Amino acid sequence: MKTRNLTAILAVTAMLFLASCGENSIERQAGEMLEKAQTEFKGGDYAKAIATIDSLRKKFPKAIEARKQALKLYQEVELKRAELQVQNADTVLQRVEKEYQELKSTVDQLRSKGEATAEQLRNVNLMRVKRDSLKTIFDVECAKIKYIKKKMEE
User: What are the DSSP E strand ranges found in the chain?
Assistant: First the structure.
């Protein structure tokens, strides 16, 4: 009887030990993937960093601490990507706005004289559509930045 109880206790202890070792191994492997994602982020390869974080989340659903840190890194990566998008959109928007204003001014002068062609009017409209699209992209990315910063504070 004592031998049976001792065997049962040893078996349970061994199972708990192996389970805890497995969890440590999972956390370690997830930590390595997290480090890889951080390196990719620091290297400016944001798409790879996001892909690595997604892989970490799929491969190691029980690595809670690594997943928490991965979420923070994911937010940082998305914030950086959105900031770059805003920067690029702003640069292009300024150039397009200037071109639009110049073209519109020229066509308005021709229109007042009754000399504006359909092609010129069409070009002004297309340039306005391009400008408005860029403004929308700019606004969406700014909203994304605001949202990410709010989530990072939570």
Answer: none
pLDDT in tens, 69-84: 999 999 999 999 999 9
Lookup: tokens for 51: 């892909």
With tokens 């065997």, the residue in question is: 7
Question: Residues 42, 7: contact at Cβ < 8 Å?
Answer: no
Q: Distance (Å, rounded) from C-alpha 45 to C-alpha 33?
A: 15
> What's residue 70's pLDDT?
94
Cα distances (angstroms) measured from residue 67 to each of 53, 71, 73, 114: 8, 6, 10, 66
CB 95 within 8 A of CB 123: no
Give the pair of three-digit tokens for residue 17.
Answer: 């030990």
What is the pTM assigned to this prediction?
A: 0.72
CB atoms within 10 A of CB 105: 11
CB 85 within 8 A of CB 141: yes
